[in-house]
What we know:
The protein has 9 helices and no strands. It has helices at 11-36, 43-50, 54-60, 64-79, 93-108, 111-123, 129-137, 139-155, 164-170. Helix 1 crosses helix 4 (64-79) and helix 2 (43-50) crosses helix 3 (54-60). The longest helix has 26 residues, at 11-36. The model has no long low-confidence stretch (mean pLDDT 85).
Amino acid sequence: MPKKEAHPMSMPDMREEAVGKAALILRGARRAFLAGGFGAVSMDAIAREAGVSKATVYAHFGSKEDLFGAVVADVAEERFAGFSARELDPRDIEASLNTIARRFLDLVLSPEAVAVNRIMIGEVTRFPALGDVFWQAGPERNRQQIEGFLRRAVEAGSLAIDDVRLAAEQF
Length: 171
């Protein structure tokens, strides 16, 4: 029986495989963190849940904190799927702000977001760096989207705001 020749993977194939593994890891980490919290879940457990090696987990996400941040961002992205504040009309302030508020409420009231918040409350005193990871991956990303919309509304002449960043934080 003739041997099959091994064909090296092309760069696009390698990127696709890497993205696929990262998605597997993210899903596994999400299940593990939501079931066990941050402190109780090991990278070994995440690797088992994802069906990959621990080395693969570390190759894609440098630390458990980075992986938790990616899970927080993934939960937010899922709830905001297909939504971008850039798509809102800066001339229709009321409708646009209502859309942002509804999307934000959908996110923060979702069972997964509530679970992530519970993890944060329970774990942040033992893992202080987790607070910043959470903030950057969730609330800060949302604030930046709102700030971008408000800035465009000011540029369009629809709003007069002296401190757009502060207005976004207050929203």
